[in-house]
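Translate sequence into structure tokens.
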Amino acid sequence: MEKTSLEKLRLGIFVIMGTVLLVIGAYVIGNRQNMFGNTFTIHAIFKNVNGLQEGNNVRYSGIGVGTVKDIVMENDSTIDVVMIIQDKMLAHIKKDAIATIGSDGLVGSMIINIVPGDGSGSKIESGDQIVSYSRIGAEDMMSTLNVTSENAALLTADLLKVTAALTKGKGTLGRLLNDTLMAKNLEQTILNLKLVSAGANKTLEEVNSFVKEANSENSVVGVLLRDSLAGLEIKQIIHSLESASDRMQNLTVNLDSVVSGISEGKGTLNYLANDTILVQRLEATMINIEEGTARFNENMEALKHNFLTRGYFKKMAKEEQKKAKKEQKNN
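Result follows.
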């Protein structure tokens, strides 16, 4: 009988201890799952949750602050993740925070990491939605690596073809690598281009110096550019030159017409040049005039010595001497 009571006592103690351990375990598990205590909910929209499940942890700046309560598929490209967050985090999480999906270690379960924003947002409230950022999954990374590997293989093959062509001297680069004469010609061409460039620079410097001199107030070009009166005078000079040129042209035409008339036997000059009888008459007339003049001079000398007119000529000589003396005095 005593043995049975002892067994019952042991069984009762075992049951009590088991119950206590069960309650403690439930409390610990529930506390970790935020089943007890004050909490609030927030939302984040993702296109791909990458294997995230209900009950996964939520961390804020690396600190566990809650769990995933629900995952709702709204449409084919929108997934709403509902998170339960400890009420004490209301003072720290702001509306500009960003939610991302990551993994707990290399092979751990998926978690949600909440990263603080720039701090300019207001404090979050229960039911608010924060911005989400979807990272590239491992499968997407592997697919991208496969495409990259294929592209690298194709690029390597093309590079091998190009290298082989260059080695054989095919194409422009191949000829440049293998043809020394062409390389020298190219070098000479580059040298000529440098010389041409130097000449062009020198020409530009001379043009700049000419422009500077033209801009100077003391230069002729500068005066013509700035002084409107000088410009008008230059225009008048050019107009006068044009008028003189027109008059010279008219004079030339007239001279041509006169010369043409003489050549054709017209006019007085042609008559004098071609009529020999008239010339002989003119010569005879000039001889007669000279002889008449000589005789007139002889008659005048005879009159000067004649006693009737000698007094008159002496008087005329005295008057001429008086006039000459007066002119000398005046001078």
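Note: The radius of gyration is 65 Å.
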